[in-house]
Amino acid sequence: MHIHILGICGTFMGGIAVLAKAAGHRVTGCDANVYPPMSTQLEAQGIELIEGFDPAQTALKPDMYVIGNVVTRGNPLMEEILNRGLPYISGPQWLAENVLQGKWVLAVAGTHGKTTTASMLAWVLEYAGLAPGFLIGGVPENFGVSARLPQTPKQDPTSVSPFFVIEADEYDTAFFDKRSKFVHYRPRTAVLNNLEFDHADIFEDLAAIEKQFHHLVRTVPQQGLVVANQQESLDRVLARGCWSALERIASTTGWEVRNVDTQGRFDVFFNGERQGNVGWELLGEHNRNNALAVIAAARHVGVAPCITIEALAEFKNVKRRMEIKGEVRGVTVYDDFAHHPTAIATTVAGLRAKVGKARILAVLEPRSNTMKLGVMKDALPDSLRDADTVFCYSANLGWDAAAALAPIHHKAHTFDDLPALVQAVAKQAQPGDHVLVMSNGGFGGVHQHLLQALQG
Prior knowledge:
alpha/beta; cell wall biogenesis/degradation; MurCDEF_pg_biosynth
């Protein structure tokens, strides 16, 4: 089959392209901006990329057009496809029908921690010799790729692994399918990490997202497993109905963490019985809860908790999750994907636990659709209180960042000009400081600019 992917350079659609190519399909694709690193990765796979959405691309005559949710009505190529009655399908549906069908799908959903938890789960299954396939919205360091098909397990070299781990996003599927992506995946094992209001561009309120999570729970079979955090919003989701086995995390009647020491080690208990002690490099309560969810999910496919605990000790976090970009003159620069006030607060708190009383200079770009709309702006000051100084890039916002940060005005600085922000951070940074950059985009290459300015 020849598929042509519209919006191919997004992480999810790029992952579908890699999987389709590995499965033997001919894959071409287009996007508004075709540039490294995604373009380089795709071209290395032998995937032809076209910049823009010229209707002339229909001359490729693919068997199917796979449509990413970045594509809207009015897109010239999409309009040509519709006018000519050509076959098209959403990315999640194509994935479900061509890759996930017949697989034991382990889906990780939640407002925060999906990428880390899905990466962790894929690594645990790999460590246990189960050779899973996966599609993750980041690059897990243990694998070096964001997607792959199921492989041949060590235990049975004549077969292909039935397991597939997927980061299950609640964002809508396509312009013609407004259900959440994860409704297509039909998992046998579903992890519900947490649930808060996000994606204000498509969801009216938290209740609208809870409804989509309820739809996900409805797809889990009776012999499946739902692993859910102990959280009020998830309680409401589950109160609507749960037809599968249910295990709770952060709960005394399920999976819980006890005895956290100063190095971040902790004991894992299930229904009051100790399962083992996790020793790893990750920090924070959120990551400990991620670990509990992974231990529960892996146990469902037959991996004993003691094996999962061994694997977690060798887990390497995903790129852009408190990733050190460099150190210059005693100043360490980090990159993190945090883009929601809760994620920002968790990230800053995690770094604070790591560095103690050392100064943290937080550099923030409110770039997500929710943040650009200003829906979460009132929660920003409190999320940044653990930082010593805050530098906010306020270009292209529809709200006044300085006014929003007024409650912490004594340590907050806003900039519409990126070079000016870089120079301000470099001027204030001192040996021993930690510069924490947070954005869900490229942020204009600010990390490298900061390192160069610090060197100068």
